[in-house]
């Protein structure tokens, strides 16, 4: 049986309403929709629109050996966890309890819970965005918005350091209040405090924004002399990043590109920003101090290339 627009109103989920209303306005008379065709299409379009807002990042579980009090069953195989101590492992981010041997078979479907994720700084980036259901870390979005609203013409932006105690205050505000943290001009008049807080966030990441796994490929791209081959290798390196890291890097590079457009006022070009952000976004996986030191010039060049070619690479 076909249903009219008006017949289905009381059964219509809120997410459909804007699409059905639009359809109503376009039709000169009440239009009849069949459940199997147009109504299904509307639902699909609405669902896709909702899903494109927040990407579904894949995340591995953060399992740690755990001693359970009282009887516990594995949430993967449903069998009892035997023993008095260290009977299994628990995910520190979502609280999933499984046998140690079962943990190797659990899919990468960790959904971090805010009761387990208590910090913003020093928290794994993918864990943070999944816990808060955001595309990027709130620190990155909020600091960049604040900087672009009042700091793009500030001389030495990102190069000049803010007062370290106040930067630490911003960090504690984010850890305590999350997205409700107040970083406005009323609280922190010096924009260098906000830029310092943003740089500190990236330095504090347990896994750098440009991850250890992707690091060698990025350094390799910086050593290539041919421009076309260099960009191709850099693009390959970007595909090695976890989606949340790549999205955050894209957003940051677009911002830094806008910073360079105000070079006459802030005196910060892509090369200067590369010097500042190279060691901030990249950390060598090598323990050899001399090898890490030799990589610094290539780290600078990687960031400089990402800024200059932001519109091509992302």
From TrEMBL:
Highest taxon above the source species: Eukaryota
SUPFAM superfamilies: Cysteine-rich domain (SSF57889), GTPase activation domain, GAP (SSF48350)
PROSITE patterns linked: RHOGAP, ZF_DAG_PE_1, ZF_DAG_PE_2
Keyword Phosphoprotein carried by entry: no
Official protein name in the record: N-chimaerin isoform X3
UniProt keyword list: GTPase activation, Metal-binding, Zinc, Zinc-finger
Domain Rho-GAP: 123-314
Biological classification of the source: Eukaryota, Metazoa, Chordata, Craniata, Vertebrata
UniProt xrefs under Pfam families: C1_1, RhoGAP
Occurrences of domain Phorbol-ester/DAG-type (ranges): 60-110
SMART domains: C1, RhoGAP
